[in-house]
Amino acid sequence: MDTPNTALRGQDTTAGGRLYMAFELGEKSWKLSLGDGQRAPSRHTVAAGDTTAVLTAIAHARARCHLGADAPVYSCYEAGRDGFWLHRWLTGQGIVNLVVDSASIEVNRRARRAKTDRLDSDRLLSMLMRYYAGERRLWAIARIPTPEQEDDRRLHRELERLRHERTAHTNRIRSLLVLHNLRVRYVGARLWTPWWARQRELLAPGLRAEIDRECERLALVRQQIRLLEVQQERQVRSGAHPGMTLLARLAGIGTGSAWTLVRELFGWRQFRNRREVAGCLGMTPTPYASGTSQVELGISKAGNKRCRWLMVELAWSWLRWQPGSQLSHWFNERFAGAGKRMRRIGIVALARRLAIALWRFLEHGEIPDGALLKPGALNIANT
Q1: DSSP string, 215-265
Q2: Whole-number Å distance between alpha carbons of 269 and 355
Q3: pTM of the complete model
Q4: 42 lies in which domain range?
Q5: Both 83 and 133 in a single domain?
Q6: What is the pLDDT of residues 220-229, one digit of tens each?
Q7: What DSSP line would sit under 48-72, residue for residue?
């Protein structure tokens, strides 16, 4: 993956002449800790999003540390709600910034530990200094997408939320009907309208009106879902991104799956080997070995959860639509005859292997062994 080098090669690692700054971002205010590694840190509280106050705090910290106006500034903050706009603004100001994975930050392991925003910002500042002193494996650094790459992820994420909302409305309508022993399997299907026209007069006015309002919201959500699905289908068919077209040509992988994999995983991340692919998905093992105790804790789940869930679904789909592939034969030989628990474990292993195979397919043009391509796919894959 596109992560910084794990070692400083020929670089000056002394702390002098630099200003370090750590952000603790909140909804209403930000806590800033600034220092040069030689004096106690100075702390400032600014209103959330007040970039002018941030520059003022930097100027005060430079003066306190007797640094010139051109002294380099290194900053960091945890990845979270504010996203990447702050990183882009800091970079535009000539500040070297890092966006840190929150889960990779070391914490005190005592049963009871003090935790405040001030302590958190001080700890981030200390770790930032250690990072630039040479401890490159201290934490995990997030790769920053371009504004265009970040915007490309909006469509399928909105579509995912709308589908959850559709399910919520459907379940709510069915639950209201069950209160009066009225059971319907499909809400909004072709048979729903005449059925509801017959049954709605049997219900109390308040309940009938509530269900009508739920149906209106459900119809709006379904309309928006159809619009986004059509837009997604058109973009894939237009060939705007060749990777989407290639993935969609494999039997068992649909338009939506190809879109999500490219926008979230393969379209803007660069992987050097199969381990990095699995690590980005959170499908790496987590052994626990201490003394004579050795336990396997399962997969790490530290990567992109959308793609991890999707790859598990695609693994089941792969077994159905690609029964002659080498991956399907491998799964059937090892897990098909086992119980349900072993099949659930095996499908995660298959999902990892399938993700690596798809990466090789996009990166090197290697079609998975025995995989079936939809008509017209071979010519595209060889281009």
Answers
A1: HHHHHHHHHHHHHHHHHHHHHHHTTSSHHHHHHHTBTT--HHHHHHHIIII
A2: 14
A3: 0.81
A4: 19-144
A5: yes
A6: 999 999 999 9
A7: TT-HHHHHHHHHHHHHHTT--TT--
